[in-house]
Amino acid sequence: VVVTVKNALNQKRLEEENIILRSKFRQKYQKLVGVSSAIKELKKKIAQAASTKASVVIYGESGTGKELVARLIHQQSDRKNKKFIHINLAAIPEHLLHRELFGYVKGAFPEATTDKKGKILLANGGTIFLDEISEIDAPLQLKLLQLLEEGTIEPEGSLESIPVDVRIIATSQINLTTQVAAKKFREDLFFKLNVLPIVIPPLRERKEDIPLLIDYYLDYFSLELGKKKKTMTPAAKEAFMNYSWPGNISELINVIERFVIMVPEEEIKPAHLSLLVEPREFQLIPRSTQALSLKEATRHFEKEYIHRLLMTNGWEINKTAQELQLSPGELKKKIKSLGIRMAD
């Protein structure tokens, strides 16, 4: 029994160490990848923000990399050796959020049997990253205003103000000016926070960066997961370029990780896309064929669509024919006439 318990504890310790190592690995390789004018401008703004102590609001759609930009600002600033604490304001109930940020003292409420430091005090000297700042209520807005104006906080149940030196980097998916106009966000807090606004463009507006992102994250996940290095064919990259990426770079990274884990071959081809990605996600007609005649484009679409269904169904002719409302014989003729092969 003692040996079993010891083995279980060792296993738990190894798992925890692995999580820490993976986290450190990911942070080490965090960088902005791209050559687009949008990325070049974003890098300039990060450098400007890092050189000051002013508050920053990072705007961008979900998945654009707002946390990465916040971390890069912190890492390039004179606070880089201090703590960077991230808190998702939208993920915590309002009645708990105040305590999470500002802490509380013993006796502040029945369950408060000891003092607890809030996230802001824990980040003292460093950076507090407030994700989704537009979600906070009016009382919390007032407390943040006090922090920005006076540099102090008051834990729940305390009559004393505690001085704090912390930089605020916030994010929002919506423009805070609209929240101010709608009386949902304090104007004075907006001006204190929005000193250095940074807007991250969605991935669909910088598609020239996609091939570089593909290569970077194929290398990244091959290293992290201990897999043999993978590459992607130009045709598969073309499919990535055609897709709108509503989940932005987070979605692209997720897809690349799935490829590295699940594709046994060293080269990722268009045929692999149907194995790992929902059929709706990639256009069947590549950009280079948009000028084809209707007949040629129809043939191309038909070939790609039938091939995708065959791949999804494990090349089961009867099942695929039924879905296409064809007889197995008709499907076999189409496979032959369209030149569809398993290796495509």
Q: Could you tell me how far the N terminus lies from the C terminus, measured between alpha carbons in angstroms?
A: 55 Å
Structural class: alpha/beta
Number of helices: 15
Q: What's the name of the CATH homologous superfamily of the largest domain?
A: P-loop containing nucleotide triphosphate hydrolases
Work out the helicity level.
Answer: 40-55%
So what's the CATH class of the largest domain? Answer: Alpha Beta
Give the biggest beta sheet: 5 strands, parallel
The name of the CATH topology of the largest domain is Rossmann fold
The average pLDDT score comes to 86
The rough form would be described as elongated
SSE pattern, N- to C-terminal:
HHEHEHEEHEHEEEHHEHEHHEHHHH
Which range does the strand content fall in? 5-15%
Rounded radius of gyration (Å) = 26 Å
Quaternary form: single chain
Number of strands: 11
Secondary structure elements and their pairing?
Elements: H1 2-28, H2 37-50, E1 56-59, H3 66-76, E2 84-88, H4 94-102, E3 103-104, E4 116-117, H5 119-122, E5 127-131, H6 138-150, E6 152-153, E7 162-163, E8 167-172, H7 176-181, H8 187-193, E9 196-199, H9 210-225, E10 231-232, H10 234-242, H11 248-262, E11 267-268, H12 270-276, H13 294-312, H14 317-324, H15 328-338
Helix pairs in contact: 2-3, 6-8, 9-11, 12-13, 14-15
